[in-house]
């Protein structure tokens, strides 16, 4: 008598099995990614806490590795770069925070670009330069942050006076709308439409590149503060009346009307003439 073969019963696979398997895989992948992200974040926080404690000694190391080639080990300058004696920490912070330094390439003017160092590193280098060859330093907070002068209870910011001082002393290069302008030999005055108050003050005090130095005999600290307040107000001002056209006044508006307005009338006249013919 033939022995019957036992066949293992094969149950039908549930249609939700594939979905469950995919869901489990996604959960596992998400958990691994979340854990890795948390680990990286903690490492970044640790690095940030370390960089915030940089000192002038750390700044010297950064200077030696990144700046001494052009400015010299003793800050006396070389054929490739000027001396830093007397420029002060304010000038160093301005040049490095705006990305002008380290210099990308030799040219008529150092362009502004994204900074290559963190704020803590920049402050450390500036502190080192200030300790070796002191110069202009950071202003009191009342100058750039609009706070009252603790030594003068009647101190107030005058936007009208600041705008007038800007037109008299700065508009010939930076444009009356602070939109910047061209200078000679490929140089230019940068736009001030997004410049911070600290960097405005630093430029007036240190005179970077083609910028003249405005000492207290030219513009008092209060005058500088008024100019900064007027420019910051202009940055935050809500534009009304349609397109700003660069805020350059009747010149740009007249050019716009001449090209588009009269051009549209000429095109309409030609079309009407061709239609009638």
UniProtKB/TrEMBL annotation:
It holds the Pfam family Cytochrom_C. Signal peptide: none annotated. Its main location: membrane. Keywords: Cell membrane, Electron transport, Heme, Iron, Membrane, Metal-binding, Repeat, Respiratory chain, Translocase, Transmembrane, Transmembrane helix, Transport. InterPro entries: bc1_cytC-su, Cyt_c-like_dom, Cyt_c-like_dom_sf, Cytochrome_c_Oxidase_Subunit, TAT_signal. It catalyses: a quinol + 2 Fe(III)-[cytochrome c](out) = a quinone + 2 Fe(II)-[cytochrome c](out) + 2 H(+)(out). The chain crosses the membrane at residues 255-274. It is found in: Cell membrane. PROSITE patterns: CYTC, TAT. It comes from the Bacteria. It is a multi-pass membrane protein. Residues 54-133, 157-235 form the Cytochrome c domain. Its EC number is 7.1.1.8. The keyword Heme applies. The cytochrome bc1 complex is composed of a cytochrome b (QcrB), the Rieske iron-sulfur protein (QcrA) and a diheme cytochrome c (QcrC) subunit. This is Cytochrome bc1 complex cytochrome c subunit.
């Amino acid at each position: 008598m033939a022995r019957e073969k036992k066949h293992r019963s094969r149950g039908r696979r549930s249609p939700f099995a594939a979905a469950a398997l995919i869901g489990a895989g996604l959960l596992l992948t998400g958990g691994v990614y979340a854990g890795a992200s948390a680990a990286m974040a903690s490492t970044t926080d640790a690095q940030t806490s370390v960089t915030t404690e940089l000192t002038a000694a750390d700044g010297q190391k950064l200077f030696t590795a990144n700046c001494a080639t052009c400015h010299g080990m003793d800050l006396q300058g070389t054929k490739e770069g000027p001396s830093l004696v007397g420029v002060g920490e304010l000038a160093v912070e301005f040049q490095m925070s705006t990305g002008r330094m380290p210099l990308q390439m030799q040219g008529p003017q150092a362009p502004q670009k994204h900074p290559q160092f963190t704020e803590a590193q920049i402050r450390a280098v500036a502190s080192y330069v200030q300790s070796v060859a002191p110069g202009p330093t950071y202003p009191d907070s009342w100058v750039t942050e609009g706070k009252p002068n603790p030594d003068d209870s009647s101190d107030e910011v005058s936007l009208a006076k600041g705008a007038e001082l800007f037109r008299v002393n700065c508009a010939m290069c930076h444009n009356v709308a602070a939109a910047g302008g061209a200078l000679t030999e490929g140089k230019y005055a940068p736009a001030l439409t997004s410049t911070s108050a600290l960097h405005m003050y630093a430029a007036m005090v240190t005179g970077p590149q083609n910028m003249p130095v405005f000492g207290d005999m030219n513009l008092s600290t209060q005058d500088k503060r008024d100019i900064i307040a007027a420019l910051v107000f202009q940055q935050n001002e809500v534009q009304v009346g349609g397109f700003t056209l660069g805020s350059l006044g009747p010149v740009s508006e007249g050019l716009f009307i001449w090209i588009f307005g009269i051009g549209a009338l000429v095109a309409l006249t030609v079309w009407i003439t061709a239609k009638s013919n």
